[in-house]
Design brief:
Elements lengths: L6 H9 L6 H15 L2 H8 L2 H10 L4 H9 L8 H12 L4 H13 L5 H18 L4 H18 L3 H15 L8 H13 L12
């Protein structure tokens, strides 16, 4: 499989917490956009934009096809214990009810930096799928429901991920949990690197 997360990177994240036609591309954009709301975590886990780009090329995949495999259901090939550890240690989530409650809170609660909330909602939703706490249909529906909310609030990917960083800063102003500089570098990479999927899939 093309997909192969680095478990240490995933646990570190937990602690801190072409195609034939335009029509086909539009469908792929729509399929990818929901999970890309949390893509900062997946780029971090895979080693950044260049590492993902090289992996896709080595596998002989198209760019959109490769990203659909890597960023959709990203925990698919991980041990279940990786997902359950992330959820229990960082979020105190041990079952489906707790997961769904937290996901809804991240989606709907009032807050200044909703990109921070929505990206984390995508992340724990995929982790919850691997843990067996939620179905694929539920994850897909949740992620899709975030897209119009994000599009109404932000102009583009830059605005979205800059607010993600602002939210993380507000959550941990002194970087007591560590990782702030790394997240800043990942966001800079995904926004500015010409190989980034965010240069391909439009925000709206």
């Amino acid at each position: 499989m093309l997909k192969n997360f680095f478990k240490a990177a995933l646990l570190a994240v937990a602690a801190v917490c072409g195609l034939a036609s335009c029509g086909d591309k539009t469908a792929d954009y729509d399929a990818l956009r929901p999970t890309l709301l949390g893509g900062v975590y997946f780029y971090r886990g895979y080693g950044g934009v260049d590492a993902v780009d090289a992996r896709i090329k080595d596998a002989g995949k198209s760019k959109l096809g490769g990203y659909k495999e890597l960023f959709t259901n990203p925990f698919e090939d991980e041990d279940i214990s990786t997902a359950t550890t992330i959820l229990s240690t960082a979020w105190d989530i041990t079952d489906g009810a707790g997961l769904k409650e937290q996901m809804e809170r991240l989606k709907s609660s009032e807050g200044e930096h909703k990109a921070w909330d929505w990206a984390r909602g995508v992340y724990i939703g995929w982790a919850g799928l691997r843990a067996g706490f939620i179905t694929r249909e539920e994850v897909d529906a949740y992620n899709a429901s975030l897209v119009p909310l994000a599009q109404a609030k932000y102009a583009d990917w830059n605005a979205y991920f800059n607010d993600f960083l602002a939210g993380r800063k507000a959550w941990d102003p002194q970087d007591e949990y560590g990782g702030a500089a790394e997240f800043e570098e990942v966001v800079k990479d995904l926004l500015n690197n010409e190989a980034s999927i965010y240069k391909v899939v439009p925000f709206k």
